[in-house]
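Consider today's protein:

***
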Amino acid sequence: MSAEIPREGLADRFWETKPMDEMTRPEWEALCDGCGKCCLNKLEDEEGTVELTRVSCRLLDVGTCLCSNYGNRHKYVPECIVLTPETIERHLYWLPRTCGYRLIYEGRPLYDWHPLISGDPETVHRAGVSMRGMTISEEAVDEDDWEDFIIQEPL
């Protein structure tokens, strides 16, 4: 998934009729809108409130907002979360409000800028929803300073 999320050859609007747990791997992967928000480091307090920071995983490609080494990411970032139909419910609390996985899980429609709707992976960036141009690599910031980089989720 480092260059682009493949979306060719998928059934038209499959996410509206197919339950998540019946989706093929390509269908599941295509739900990702490519915003890059899930690759941001987050801070969670004792009450479970999650704050986004603009400090990104070192594997985030800042141009595409996709993982630069998706297939091997666990080799370099062992704590990277694998989101699946089986794990989505336990991770829902930190998924971005605009996330395609979250929207479909909650029974809501995808936004017009989602590449599955628009047919163009650039629409998420043009809509101002992605993290393109807004991040700083975790390699450049001490973890104790992440609090200085808290942001509001771009909508």
User: Anything to note?
Assistant: The longest strand covers residues 50-56. The beta strands are 40-44, 50-56, 60-61, 66-67, 136-137, 150-151. The mean pLDDT is 93.
